[in-house]
Write a structure and sequence with these properties.
single chain; about 90 residues; 4-stranded antiparallel β-sheet; alpha+beta
């Protein structure tokens, strides 16, 4: 299966924007009424099959790469992409 390895760097961003990028990618849990209710807010990777290698490195299908890159461009994140070939069972 043809995929993309995306390595991204958040070190040039301030803490507020780092949190925004991670929430946009991975989602987060939202609490209301002093923690009585919890809501799962989905990120882009909640709906895309992916494999997180390390902090700052993910593998996605080639056709899903543009969605991730659009988030990076929105927040001025530095990133590199590489074409790779993997087994189909690796992505979930």
């Amino acid at each position: 299966m043809k995929c993309k390895l995306i390595a991204y760097y958040l070190s040039s961003l301030d803490q507020y924007h780092k949190v925004l990028v991670n929430r946009a990618l991975f989602g987060y849990i939202d609490n209301s009424n002093k923690g009585k209710y919890q809501y799962r807010r989905k990120g882009i990777l909640s709906e895309i099959p992916h494999f997180k290698l390390l902090k700052g490195a993910i593998i996605v299908r080639k056709e899903d790469c543009k969605k991730i890159i659009s988030v990076f461009k929105k927040y001025n994140v530095k990133y590199l992409t590489f074409d790779i070939e993997i087994k189909r069972s690796l992505l979930h």
